[in-house]
Each structure stands twice: as structure tokens, then as C-alpha cells.
Give the backbone structure.
Amino acid sequence: MPAADGVYVLHDSRLSGNAWKVRLLLSHLGLPFRRVTYVLPEGKTRTPEFLAWNPLGKVPVLELPTGEALFESCAILCHLAEGTPFLPPPGIDRARVMQWLFFEQAEAVKPLAGARFWIAVARRPEEKAAEIAEWHAAGNRVLGILDARLAAREFLATDRCTIADIANFPYVAMSPEGGYDLGRYPNVAAWVDRVRRQPGHVPLIEEPTAAKESV
Amino acid sequence: MPAADGVYVLHDSRLSGNAWKVRLLLSHLGLPFRRVTYVLPEGKTRTPEFLAWNPLGKVPVLELPTGEALFESCAILCHLAEGTPFLPPPGIDRARVMQWLFFEQAEAVKPLAGARFWIAVARRPEEKAAEIAEWHAAGNRVLGILDARLAAREFLATDRCTIADIANFPYVAMSPEGGYDLGRYPNVAAWVDRVRRQPGHVPLIEEPTAAKESV
């Protein structure tokens, strides 16, 4: 397990949308970082050392250059974005960013990521048929709310791309893997393309290189 | 539906823990506010006017003195606490506050509030027996994490009461209504008492007075 050495160290997994958020922002901000990518079924996020960073045993965890470790993807976004255009100064614009960040965690992640996980990652949707039906109902409601919000605006919170967009992007962009039809939500589909075209965008999966990826 | 008139207007319900958070912070900060309390089954949070404030149709919604409306309880806390001791300035302490705010929404609310709702509010636990079993497993894990965090500290994020404590308090304090035994989590139980003893604390339910409560 690498110790902090003056740069950010992101502990992630290849398929985690929550970790993708953090890589997206690090890339947008041009912040150099080392990446430690876990294969979750191997259990290495359940070691005492990892649990000391995040008692939930989940990625992402960000080790700061000071050596401290942060968990909760959106808290990491807030910390990294402070003082940058991705998080406006205190006021109503920042409040809107925070509103859509909490919306993502409270309303969007579970139905969007849950359906994607069982359908496209675990590939055992029959084990969760009832939950998937409930997730699809809730997730389509979430997508409808986002579609209405984006009807007359380019980005979720303010007139530019903020961490509200970065946070909501991964699981919405990947929602078709979970059986959602973004064709029903044209404003969301256009926003997904818009966020993907931002300078600094990085895909979920990049070819690992020795310089960037350990484990 | 009252229009904004230069003070905060909190749209809440009598039993919502998410709304309780906001009343707690408004009280701690000594901010005057008017309160509009909904009886949720009456459907008045599903009107077009309410949905324009919060498309989820949920309380709390806070109307700001400027007339703008915010939803997501923790986003409201962040907005109100900015520049006060309840939200430290940017840095690691603020990052810890944000981490425990997102932990509450992502991990704690559903299992704690879900079990409480079906057992103590709706009083139809038999309809959700399987979910309640899952919530109890997840909720006890959450309470164990909080208990470990509070083993050597008085408050969740920093050395004083912050919005991280205000946000996590309501559903943890009410968790026994959902079948949780705080006797298993002595550090959590002591923290609940500690938060409750903070100056400015207000109970979930106060007797309504004509001056404070409409609807």
C-alpha cells in the first residue's frame, strides 16, 4: 500500500462510477495523481489498513498530499474543487451545486448504479428482479427530473460545468447499461454529450500504464 | 402558499428528520424563520407550485429571503452554515464535515429512516419485512461505524459541533423507533445526548403556535 509522497493518490476500481467522478475532476483540474486500482472481489478494500481510511471498505478514497485520507466521492469533489470554477464561491450558485450533489447521492446513485451493477457488472439480474423493477421506477423518475432541469440550460447548477455535472455524469452516462433508455430523455442525452466534450474529459476505462496504475 | 417576505420560510412536516436538521441549525444560528408544516398524505407537496421548488415533492424546502427555494436538507445546511462555526473554512476540517454529510445521505438515512417509517410512522412493518431486515443489517453497520468514529472524539468531524453532527443526529437519535438498540453503541448514545444538550437544540415536535406554524 503506497504511502503519500506529496501527490494525490486515488484508490479506485476500474468500473466504479464514484471513482470516475474523482478522476474526471483531477483531470479537469490538471492535478497529477497516482492511481491504485483494486479488483474489488479480491477483498483488499477490507483490510485493516484500508478500513482505517474508509470504514465502509469502498472506493474511492483519496490520499491527500498531506497524507490524510478522504472518502465519499462528492466530499472529495468539494475539497478538490474549492477555489476553482468547478465550485462557485459561497452564495446561491454554490448552494445549487450542493443541491445537485446531494440529489445525486440521495436519489440518483442507488437506482442507476444498482440496476447497472446487477445487469452489466455482476450479470445476475435474475437475483434482483424485484429490486431492479423498483430501481427502474425510481431511476426513470430521477432521469425525468434531470431532463426537466436541463430543458432550458446547458449544465445542472450554473451556466458552466461544475462538480454538480461531474458528480451526476458517470451513473447517468452509464445508465443504459442498467436498462435505461436515454432516448426518452433528450435533454439528458445532450447534456451527457456536452459533459463528455469538456476539455479534460477522461473515459471510464483507460489502458493502464505502468506509470499510472499500480495493483 | 406564502410568498417570501424577507425571512426564511421552511417548508417541513412534523415528523421529517431531514426537516428537523434544518430547524436545528436555524435555531442554533438564531435565524428567524416562518414554518409551513405539511401533512404529507394530503398531497400538498405534489402541487405544481411545490414541485417547482422541489421536483421530488419532498420536504424540507427552504425559501431564502431572496425568494429562491433550495431543496436537499444537507445542501440547505451547507448554505446556512457558511461563515459560521458550524462549517469550518476550506481545508481538511471542512472536508471532514462534507465527508460525514455525504455519509449520512448515502449510507445512513435509508436504513435508519426506512425502518423507523414503516415501524413507527406507517405502523405497517409486515409490508416491508424483507426490507426491514436488510435495513437493520445496513443500519447496524452504520451505527457501528459512527460508534468507532466517536470512540475518542466528542463530535463527528471536528472538535466542536458542526453540521456533520446536526445532519447525522435526527435519524440516529430516532433510530430506536425503527428497532435499533443504541445500548449496543455507547459512544453513539453519548453523542446523541451531547448534541441534544447543545445550546439552541430544539425537539422534533413542538406545540404549534399561531405565530410559528401555518397549514
